[in-house]
């Protein structure tokens, strides 16, 4: 009896164990002890085809029966966590590239990923899983900035493949971190793959064709390869344009042969937003490569695009039924995307993920503020300093003018967060020397010498001054309003930094109506100015007066001949899908008088003119109405004429001018080298802009930024913008005389190079080259030098004249000498082999050129032989 009872009890234990094992096996995807791949494969088996397809779209809906939360793959962190509210805003990437400091860049993106994790915890704990709230950030942009006219070049790390690779790897390592408890910190994304750098205006139809093997492997692909193979980047984004006749997001050559087969990439490919639409949309709206959405979606998945930013993948279930694609191909993509979500810990209990323990105080912490300032300082690039005008004495009377002097938004560039505070350049100067020594005169706008005297204060409804504002949570003004507001100052909104237009209004997909009655005090022309992203319709007395879409700069959209005392009912309807921006004002146009402007600064010892351009002029697929700009790109590279004229008149009047140029690209500053004693390239320096600029102008920081792009004299020195052939482009192939060469930048001290030594003058292919470079600070100030090492192969007459293969930013006290040892690995010594059409260590004679810029006069030469 006892024995039998024991058997029954043991059988019961066996049954219970079996049941437990069964449950465990049934829910293996919930077991954090299994690998992400094992969990992904288990979860895949539980999904219907429709659920799989839903997960493959960037705004993924929840699947409650399996405990899968909603997730949006689209988040941004170009130079700080972006479009998610307040965050630390670092300099734009082209400025950070000018630092030539990948160690500091790693620290920047380690800080960015900390802030992103905090944001994700805050959003997810309150049930928010929307756009810009996730852990997959679509940066870095490692396209080659091959032509200064490209509006998005500001988002890159410059024109050189090696610099781009080094900086890109630092970004990826900083974002993704070293796994803790098996979880990645974030997932970075290398974009836009590949051969993609403008034009913006035709990017949805453009075909990059006849790309030589040399240009492909030597220029356009190296950074992508390094981020895949050396940094283990977890996402790659395919581009809008076509490559050799095939849309990049449906290119078997790019995504399967090169990326997955040759480079053995195992992670996610995501599409650029609505790029899958471009595959089937007919010319001139798309490539017209497939007949309909089902064929386009099938092609993209079959060639390896796992996640779509868009909604075309919703046609995949129908495509399977039509036999256009096999569900097994869909399964491959779904496993990859599920693995990524498990790697991030996004589907596990937050207590298991160490990254979720980061405190709220991390966001814009004092350490991050200091890091933003440090990077802004290191980005400052001094291009000219005639008669050593800089640094300025702090007891001088300074007149500050120019369109960027008081503009905080320009300092943020694009794809930005919203800083808690931005130090404008005039604020930085006042903080440095005292407001009593500083006068401000606008001088001119970016492209116009016209100012607007606002009549906004002449508006009221029933005696209450201002405009009423009504908001809807849709784009067609339908249903009940979700918010009301009252505005007493001109409209100035931007949701790009994650800031809502009004309390209770969403960041995207909303409409607004602004209404008041204007009673002018005087008769005359009243100009209505607007710039926006989205759509608008303007009514006066119920009659439509204007209608349109995105306007990049404040533009006069209507001139009303007003009568004093007469009432005009004004209504502005506005709607936007995402990233709304709206600036609206009206009043009297006043021409700025340069003679009066110059007279107003006659007592100043020096004029600091803060000019250049703006992200409102250069950027991504924009509708800019201004001379010299098209679709966000530029048609010329000169400083806008109105600024150029004012600088010349200041010079003619005998004023000493320091020109602080804010731009995300190279400008042709030939006249400015004559009209300005000093030129400081400040880029778009982020939240600490004014402090960093003032530190340099007044000598509290010795500049050491170096140009990551060539500054040409004019567009006549450039090939056709739409020609992707590298001949004549960038310092590597440009045969003319640049205004300021790649790698160039001045200091308040001087440096000298001694004769470098090679450990070996003959090396084996695949071996190491080691050189020791003596460098001295021969001036009277402590400073930093960026040592640059270039490789050249004299026998290759079709190859680059020189190409960067190493750099080191070193600090030297006044009078100090250092022996700096630099090692070049086999990868650093690769050269394009015309026989095999590959990059490899090609035997032959080589030159190493080392010094402080890419200009021949700044370089010394060593020779070695590779066997």
Automatic annotation (TrEMBL):
PROSITE patterns to which the protein is assigned, alphabetical: PA14
Domain PA14 positions: 462-602
Pfam families according to UniProt: Fn3-like, Glyco_hydro_3, Glyco_hydro_3_C, PA14
GO MF assignments: alpha-L-arabinofuranosidase activity; xylan 1,4-beta-xylosidase activity
One of the GO biological process terms: arabinan catabolic process
Keyword entries, A-Z: Hydrolase, Signal
Record-linked InterPro entries: BXL, Fn3-like, GH, Glyco_hydro_3_C, Glyco_hydro_3_C_sf, Glyco_hydro_3_N, Glyco_hydro_3_N_sf, Ig-like_fold
Family from the record: Belongs to the glycosyl hydrolase 3 family.
NCBIfam families in the cross-refs: xylosidase_Xyl3A
Name of this protein: Beta-glucosidase
Organism: Bacteroides luti
């Amino acid at each position: 009896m006892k024995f039998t009872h024991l058997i029954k009890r043991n059988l019961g234990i066996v049954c219970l164990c079996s049941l437990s094992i069964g449950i465990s096996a049934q829910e293996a995807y919930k077991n954090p002890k299994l690998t992400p791949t094992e969990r992904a494969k288990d979860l895949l088996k539980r999904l219907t085809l429709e659920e799989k397809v839903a997960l493959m779209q960037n705004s993924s809906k929840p699947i409650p029966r399996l405990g899968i939360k909603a997730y949006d793959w689209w988040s941004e962190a170009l130079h700080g966590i972006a479009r998610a509210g307040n965050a630390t805003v670092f300099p734009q990437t082209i400025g950070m590239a000018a630092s030539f400091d990948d160690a500091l860049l790693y620290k920047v993106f380690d800080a960015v990923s900390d802030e992103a994790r905090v944001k994700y915890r805050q959003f997810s704990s309150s049930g928010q899983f929307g756009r810009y709230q996730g852990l997959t950030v679509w940066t870095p942009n490692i396209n080659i900035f091959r032509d200064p006219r490209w509006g998005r070049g500001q988002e890159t790390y410059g024109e050189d493949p090696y610099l781009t690779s080094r900086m890109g790897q630092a970004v990826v390592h900083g974002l993704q971190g070293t796994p803790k408890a098996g979880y990645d910190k974030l997932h970075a994304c290398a974009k836009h793959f590949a051969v993609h750098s403008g034009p913006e205006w035709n990017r949805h139809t453009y075909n990059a064709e006849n790309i030589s093997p040399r240009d492909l492997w030597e220029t356009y692909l190296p950074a992508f390869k390094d981020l895949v193979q050396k940094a283990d980047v977890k996402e790659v984004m395919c581009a809008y344009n076509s490559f050799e006749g095939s849309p990049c997001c449906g290119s078997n050559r790019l995504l399967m042969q090169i990326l997955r087969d040759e480079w053995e990439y195992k992670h996610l490919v995501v599409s650029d937003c609505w790029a899958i639409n471009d595959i089937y949309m007919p010319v001139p709206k798309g490539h017209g490569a497939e007949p309909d959405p089902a064929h386009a979606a099938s092609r993209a998945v079959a060639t390896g695009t796992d996640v779509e930013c868009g909604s075309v993948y919703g046609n995949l279930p129908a495509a399977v039924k039509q036999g256009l694609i096999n569900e097994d191909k869909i399964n491959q993509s779904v496993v990859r995307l599920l693995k990524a979500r498990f790697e991030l810990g996004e589907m596990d209990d937050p207590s298991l993920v160490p990254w979720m323990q980061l405190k709220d105080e991390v966001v814009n912490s004092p350490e991050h503020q200091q890091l933003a300032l440090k990077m802004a300082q290191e980005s400052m690039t001094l291009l000219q300093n005639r008669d050593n005008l800089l640094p300025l004495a702090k007891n001088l009377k300074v007149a500050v003018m120019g369109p960027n002097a008081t503009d905080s938004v320009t300092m943020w560039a694009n794809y930005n967060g919203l800083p808690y505070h931005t130090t404008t350049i005039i604020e930085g100067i006042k903080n440095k020397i005292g407001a009593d020594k500083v006068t401000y005169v606008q001088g001119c706008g970016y492209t116009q010498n016209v100012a607007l005297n606002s009549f906004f204060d002449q508006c009221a409804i029933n005696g209450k001054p201002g405009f009423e504002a009504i908001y809807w949570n849709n784009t067609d003004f339908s249903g009940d309003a979700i918010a009301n507001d009252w505005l007493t100052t001109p409209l100035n909104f931007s949701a790009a930094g994650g800031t809502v237009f009004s309390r209770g209004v969403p960041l995207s997909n909303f409409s607004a109506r602004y209404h008041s009655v204007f009673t002018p005090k005087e008769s005359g022309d009243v100009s209505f100015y607007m710039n926006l992203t989205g759509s608008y319709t303007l009514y006066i007395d119920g009659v439509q007066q204007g209608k349109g879409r995105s306007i990049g700069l404040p533009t006069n959209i209507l001139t009303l001949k007003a009568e004093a005392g007469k009432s005009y009912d004004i209504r502005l309807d506005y709607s936007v899908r995402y990233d709304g921006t709206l600036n609206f004002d009206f009043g009297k146009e006043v021409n700025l008088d340069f003679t009066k402007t110059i007279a107003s600064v006659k007592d100043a010892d020096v004029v600091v003119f803060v000019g250049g351009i703006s992200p409102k002029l250069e950027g991504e697929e924009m509708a800019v109405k201004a001379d010299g700009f098209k679709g966000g790109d530029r048609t010329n590279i000169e400083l806008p004429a109105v600024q150029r004229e004012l600088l010349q008149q200041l010079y003619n009047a005998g004023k000493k001018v320091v020109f602080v140029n804010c731009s995300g690209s190279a400008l042709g500053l030939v006249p400015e080298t004559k009209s300005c004693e000093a030129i400081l390239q400040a880029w778009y320096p982020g939240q600490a802009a004014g402090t960093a600029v003032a530190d340099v102008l007044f000598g509290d920081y010795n500049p050491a930024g170096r140009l990551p792009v060539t500054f040409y004299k004019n567009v006549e020195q450039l090939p056709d913008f739409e020609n992707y052939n590298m001949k004549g482009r960038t310092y590597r192939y440009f045969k003319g005389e640049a205004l300021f060469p790649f790698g160039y930048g001045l200091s308040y001290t001087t440096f000298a190079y001694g004769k470098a030594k090679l450990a070996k003058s003959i090396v084996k292919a695949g071996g190491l080259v080691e050189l020791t470079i003596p460098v001295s600070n021969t001036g009277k100030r402590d400073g930093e030098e960026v040592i640059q090492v270039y490789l050249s192969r004299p026998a290759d007459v079709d190859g680059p004249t020189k190409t960067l293969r190493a750099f080191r930013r070193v600090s030297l006290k006044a009078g100090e000498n250092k022996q700096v040892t630099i090692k070049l690995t086999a990868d650093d010594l690769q050269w394009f082999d015309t026989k095999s059409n590959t990059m490899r260590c090609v035997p032959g004679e080589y030159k190493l050129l080392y010094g402080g810029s890419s200009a021949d006069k700044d370089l010394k030469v060593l020779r070695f032989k590779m066997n």
